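FORM 7B: Structural annotation worksheet

SECTION A. Query
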Amino acid sequence: MALTLVLLVVLIALAFEYINGFHDTANSIATVVATKVLSPGQAVLLAASTNLIGALMGTAVAKTIAAGLIDTQLVTVTPIVLICALLGAVIWNLITWWWGLPSSSSHALVGGLCGAAFAAASNNWNAIIWAQGGSHWWGEKGVIPKVVVPMVTSPLAGFILGLLLMGVLFSLIEFLGSRKGWLHRLGRTPFVNAVFGKAQLGSAAVMGLSHGMNDAQKTMGIIALALAGATTAGTFDDLPAWLDFLRIHETTGHKFEIAMWIKILCALVMAAGTAAGGWRIIKTLGHKMVKLHPINGFAAESAAASVIMVSSHFGLPVSTTHNISSAILGVGVAKRFNAIRWTIVERMVWAWILTLPVTAIVAWSLVRAARALGLPV
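SECTION B. Predicted structure
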């Protein structure tokens, strides 16, 4: 029974990874499709391949999810708890996908994990690591420094970078357009579109890499947490030697090493999900919020990818969705303030605000229901 539940956690985690792939495909390719630099099919292929590569680059985010949010000394993270956490995130992801809202899979997973752990610990708030370690009040790990603070600062950084980069590019084009001779031709719209159409291929590829580096690692952390808990509980003690790869031992400081097979499996599943596409959200990001040209797409992708890659380096599970959306917003404001369709932005912001509490409540309710049914919570 225990082994079956652990394997079920792995399967549901991979389902979440697949849904994350098609839910967040828009993050990587909405701009490059909207600017008509690539066809939808070409863009999906680019996003899937770069997501695959990015998922294999580092494990800092995975370790944050596995050992930086829940105090495993106060709450036993059983397979049922993890299943409820994942289901909370999956349900919200499917709802927002159906509505075409670019919500955060990252925050959905964090909310689900915190809500499930809170219920499993009999509503003990200390089961959640709010802030711990370090010389500053916010600490080096926990929900506040690793999730809440970046949830506010990373989209703000994406917005500012998008605005500044777009401003610099506009100034450069205006300068070239005011010159005489061959410099004047460099500032003309056909030349600018041709140059940034090619440049956007690179920025879209980097965006796909950053998405894989951050989003794919979250599921790696959940799988590592499940296998480490099962190893400690002795679930794998009677398994044959050839299944030793399932055992994951906790290292110093309650950290987990992420096995290579977990990285590869999660990377492949996310790439497959990405290849399935997410056209509802692509329509919102790429077409409804602001009209984009290749230079706008290049600026937005470059700004968002920069923020996400820096965050991934420091193990911050930030939202790819929030960052690319805010970068697009910054680029749109640089064009002109009324270029933005603010009613669409309002719907997106509400989805962002509701993600953490809604997924936490859903996961909390599922754990309570599982306990009422007599399941081993």
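SECTION C. Observations
The first strand starts at residue 250 and ends at 251. Strands lie at 250-251, 255-256.

SECTION D. Sign-off
Analyst initials: ____
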